[in-house]
Amino acid sequence: MTKKVIIIGAVGGGATTASQLRKLDETMEIIVLERTDHLSYGACGMPYYLGDVIKDRESLFAATPESLQTKKGLDVRMKHEALTIDREQKTLHIRNHTTNEDYEETYDVLVLATGASSILPDIPGLKQIPAFHLRTVADMDRMKQHLVTEKPTSCAIIGGGYIGVEMAENLSGLGMSVSVVERSSQLIHIIDPEAAEIVQKHLNDNGVDVFLDDGLSEVSGPDQLKLDSGKMIQADCMLLAVGIKPNNVLAEQAGLSLGDSGGIKANEFMQTDDPSIYCVGDVVESIDFIDHAPKQVPLAWPAHRQAYVIARHITGDPVPFHGMLGTAIAKVFDLHVASTGLGEKELNKKGYRFKTIVHKGKSHAAYYPGAKDVYVRVHFDPSSGKIYGGSVIGEEKVDKQIDILATAIYGGITITGLQEIETCYAPPFSSPKGLLNMVGYKAEAEMD
Q1: DSSP characters for 252-286?
Q2: Where do the domains of the chain lie?
Q3: What are the FAD/NAD(P)-binding domain coordinates in residue numbering (predicted)?
């Protein structure tokens, strides 16, 4: 008997799950519900569209409802919102926001891809200034319209994570004066403090003001922002980038288990504690690949991998999801900053005994023109050589190094085993011994 699968949410994980299911089963009934006007878009590209680096808005969309319907045979229902789940009857109560009509739909299998929403802090006086957040296409369009029509000359970004620093570059590229306000002691909290200091200096060198250990206390006038420290900054508009929260209301009302992060708990096949209900993407509390502790990191790769795992399990050919490292990278003006695995602060918090190898090298042979500095930090267990994680920062080849490091961790290669990774060499591209080869050689003297 043909299964009927309903997928709630169609941005990244949901749309990918639907596509993977169709590849594996040509006859399955697949219904996709999306409560907004947009689906299957590259949210990570939105800062670059706002910064006018990406000119074509439509290039952010990987598919349309029509293409998913005609090419993949999916039943795509836009502006349809699932309101409640009746697990006993395997029924959804759905609202069609176009007609304002409610109806019910039964399912055999349900996939929750409800994503996450921006955290919007309650700030006194916020309505006195144009304030934006960046999570959906509607958010992007609203901010783009303001940038084009009002032409603000300054912006305060509240939050110094990846979105905050990426937007700092893109708004600066429009000629705006930019300030970044971060409540913690460093930018991009998942990277090591030393790497964060390099990012901060680079932002300062490019004209961005950075305020650490500080927060926004109130908006005291149309362009006057008061910080917790009492400092005042001026801005024509504001971007709130303080984090996200999983859209878990539907799951919680259905009695599904949530983790401490608010994400839905799932097993290795992405099933909730109801075996007929799966979850994928930013709404999930996943596990860490290294220590299997709960981990909630909103990144594209885990969502796409989880979608594949779900499709394989539903179609009877299961493969497990082994967890995530949280491998991430950002461009901050000319600087590229990346991390994978457990960072220094997290290792200390969890009580790990570890050592760190720090290596500064060049992006390619030093004698070949254009070589740039690259800084590598790798954390490891000095007893077993197990690699816990690390960060890479520089102007070139950062993505290559972090991907090699992530691959080594997934493959169980030890810190000294990095010596043996044979990478390509020619002067315009690298050095005879790669940066991570050198980390492996340096680690020999640090082993127990």
Answers
A1: HHTT--B-TTSPEE--TTSB-SSTTEEE-GGGEEE
A2: 4-116+245-314, 120-242, 334-446
A3: 3-295
Q: What is the pLDDT of residues 239-278, one digit of tens each?
A: 999 999 999 999 999 999 999 999 999 999 999 999 999 9
**CA-wise closest residue to 167 among 337, 330, 277:** 330
Q: How confident is the model at residue 221 (pLDDT cuts 50, 70, 90)?
A: confident
On whether the CB atoms of residues 248 and 114 are closer than 8 A, the answer is: yes
pLDDT in tens, 107-142: 999 999 999 999 999 999 999 999 999 999 999 999
What pLDDT, on the 0 to 100 scale, is given for residue 220?
Answer: 87
Q: What is the rounded distance in angstroms from the CA atom of residue 12 to the CA atom of residue 137? A: 13
Q: Do domains 4-116+245-314 and 120-242 have the same CATH topology?
A: yes
Catalytic residue among 44, 155, 279, 424: 44
**What tens digit of pLDDT does each residue of 91-108 get?**
999 999 999 999 999 999
Nearest Cα to 303, choosing from 266, 274, 332, 258? 266
Say whether pLDDT at 1 is over 80.
no
Interaxial angle between packed helices 13-24 and 300-314, expressed in degrees from 0 to 180 and rounded to the nearest 10: 30
Residue appearing with tokens 């783009």: 144
Decide if domain 334-446 falls under CATH 3.30.390.30.
yes
CATH number assigned to the domain with residue range 120-242, chosen from the 4 options 3.30.450.40, 3.40.50.12640, 3.50.50.60, 2.60.200.30: 3.50.50.60
| Residue 52 CA: distances (Å) to CA of 168, 179, 237 | 13, 19, 18
Q: What's the pTM?
A: 0.94
Q: Does the annotation count 44 as an active-site position?
A: yes
Cα 294 to Cα 223: distance, rounded to the nearest angstrom: 41
Structure tokens at 217: 């206390």
